[in-house]
Amino acid sequence: MNKFALTLTSAAMIATLAGCSKPSTDTQTAAEKPAMEATQQADNPLLAEYAGPYGGVPAFDKMDLADLKPALEKGMEINLAEVDAIVNNPDAPTFENTIAALERSGAELNRVFRYWGIWSSNMNSPEFREIQAEMVPKISAFSSKINQNEALFARVKAVYEGEEFKTLTPEQQRVTWLNYNGFARNGATLEGEAKARYAEINQELATLQTKFANNVLADEENYVLYITEDQLSGLPESFVTAAASAAASRDQEGKYAITNTRSSMDPFLTYSDERELRKKVWETYYSRGNNGDEYDNNELIKQILALRHERIKLLGYDNYSAWRLEDRMAKNPQNAMDLMEKVWPAAIARVEEEVKDMQAVADAEGADITIKPWDYRYYAEKVRKEKYDLDSDEVKQYLQLDKLREAMFYVAGRLFNFKFSPVPEGSVPVFHEDVKVWDVTDLTTGEHIGLWYLDPFARKGKRSGAWATTYRSHTTFDGKKTVLSSNNSNFVKGPEGEPTLISFDDAETYFHEFGHALHFLAATVAYPTSHSGVRDYTEFQSQLLERWLTTDEVIDNYLVHYKTGEPIPEELVAKIKKASTFNEGFKTTEYMASAIMDLLYHTTDPAQIDPQTFEKEQLTKLGMPEEIVMRHRSTHFGHIFSSEGYASSYYGYMWAEVLTSDAAEAFAEAPGGFYDKEVGERLVKHLFAIRNAMDPAEAYRLFRGRDAKVEALMRDRGFPVE
């Protein structure tokens, strides 16, 4: 999952931890100050409380970039005043006057960050980037003021180490520890020059990471390949019509646009018969941030790694990974690398088999080529047809975006007892006409759970990929707050009046991101900090939901042909299931190469790293097949260089996949299969509703009765199990 707030580095965390409401420090009376602030907030919709139905909703219809900078500045001012109020409380520190006060705080700034996230991820523009470049260092400085507030940390520490701690509820104890740990690990214990330098580094990183992300976005926007009708050989009709529509939207009527995003690149490389064009599209996509121009990211990577290393040295750690993984499920980089090393040999051995099969097809055709990276998807598709008689484009005819959404709603109803109903048009503001909204209620009681926003289509100014986020999370400690959740994708919109068709991989991603939304919507926790994620765990719930795409109930009712309405034939379903582990070598290896490189980048002295040389040398040592590249090459590896959200944690997808495979076997073994009532109830109670209010390892044991086993993952991927 890629939350928008991660672009703010530590600012997102601070928005959760900090804020409240402070007595006036100027000449105004305490009575006058709230009235003045209320007026200012009413004048700036980005600061104002959500109004309207469903417990209040974001004022997306009132978003104006002119309001963003003053809203951020005012939000930070209020936040700092609130922290002062906590610090200056004359009463001894307690959970209520310190931890709960921190949990209660930051509402104004949090709301501003929600709008910031929309501009950053969904509606980016040169004008926004100017504000972003100016404000990111200021936000980082603001974060440091709170992280390094000695008096505030002293109060948090007093609660954590005090007698009251023993009397708190389990969630209150964990929230207290998370607050304490957040301060202790982020510079609160430093003094003097070290503390000042720590804050400076955060500011520098915030600027560099933002620039990294914007450089990648610039390359995605600037490189669009326009092809003509005589260059369409092999491309399926659905892709051609979508490419024509994309070209027309860019004032290139009569041409076909291949955009520099995965949703466009991937199908083009899979189907195009034009090898030179495949090479061009491949090179353009995998060269993002590495073109030797103003948007080149190589130097930024070196600077980011050096600063991260310097910062953790101030805290006494050997390397960035040791610091980052200390409070994750893996605990240390060696444990993370051990998991990679268990799977890597089987993955590259499978790649060797896949390439051999592809080369045989190419030779039989008389292609007179050696398989290259831009050939892999193309010939893999030919092997799929030959080995399994499975045509990916034929499958695609049964994967309509709207029908898949209905399927996801069906699964949510069976597992979570949720009902999704479209809200009346115009009743809830949206930031783009493509965005649709659903009301989520309890199927039995009719109780309102929250809203679900969907922004499914690619467009200029929207970052690539798919992600989920929230505009408001469930809490109960200060009055019940319902959930405002959002899923965002980059599907290529179908022609006017026709359904949008997507690949099977994209369908899995659709379910994956919806899993994040269900994780938000199912929450029953009391405190905001209970929503803070453990990175090598938070992908588990979403990965698990992918499994319901291939359940009989979904296949039989929602996979219907977009023209005839006929259900997908049983023989085609059998082929899909038979080919379920096909191309697993490619998928596993391209992902793991990125995950391993992430760990290597963050356990190696940055002074020894030149990104291009380091990437090449390390992958060679690993025995990386030359027919595959990293899923995210270094210069566009936004997960780890555009923020610190996944830095040294990209392995977490596989760590979570071990949990996923093991949990899936629990359903497979149950009498009711994937819709088994008893296992489903345990799933929601222990693995979705609890969020981070409990140690994830303990939560998983409550669900499964034991720890997860890596053998389940190996079986899932069709790899040999010792």
The number of helical elements comes to 29
Query: Major sheet: order of its strands?
Result: 3-4-5-7-6
Biggest beta sheet summary: 5 strands, mixed
Please tell me what the overall shape is.
globular
Q: Which CATH class of the domain at 4-205?
A: Mainly Alpha
Give a count of the beta strands, DSSP E runs of length 2 or more. 7
- End-to-end separation in angstroms reads 32 Å
Estimated share of beta-strand residues: 5-15%
Q: Which percent bin holds the helix content?
A: 55-70%
Low-confidence stretches: 1-39
**Any guess at the CATH architecture of the domain at 4-205?**
Orthogonal Bundle
* Structural class assignment: mainly alpha
Q: Report mean pLDDT, rounded to a whole number.
A: 92
Relevant terms:
722 residues; mainly alpha; Neurolysin, domain 3; five-stranded mixed β-sheet; two-stranded antiparallel sheet; 29 helices; disordered N terminus
Describe it.
The protein has 722 residues and is mainly α. Among the domains are: 4-205, Neurolysin, domain 3; 223-277, no CATH class. The chain has 29 helices and seven strands. The protein has helices at 11-17, 32-43, 65-87, 95-104, 107-122, 126-147, 150-161, 170-184, 192-222, 237-248, 262-271, 275-286, 298-314, 320-324, 333-365, 373-388, 392-396, 401-416, 504-521, 535-545, 552-558, 570-578, 584-601, 611-622, 638-641, 652-669, 677-688, 696-704, 710-716, and strands at residues 225-227, 256-258, 418-422, 436-442, 448-457, 467-472, 483-491. The strands form two sheets. A five-stranded mixed beta sheet has the order 3-4-5-7-6, with helices on both faces. The two termini are 32 Å apart.
